[in-house]
Amino acid sequence: MDAIDRALGELPMPPYVTAEDVGFAVRALAVHVAEQWPEGARCRNDRAPHPCRLHRWGQRVLDERGLTEEQVRALLAEQEATLR
């Protein structure tokens, strides 16, 4: 955990996970992916230790929604196609 994580803590979960929240969560996972650095895995977007706050938040939202790994992979593939 880096200093920002210690200072700010986790991002709060929405009270009810909506379809819009799922879209934001998928976007967070697509943008905040791991890259290998000499000191270990870092977030491609903000260089925080991976998984960063937004990646963890996105994963928690998708877990709360009850999506399977296969469903998450399909949503990420769809998101990647949109980002291109």
Automatic annotation (TrEMBL):
Protein name: Uncharacterized protein
Organism: Micromonospora sonchi
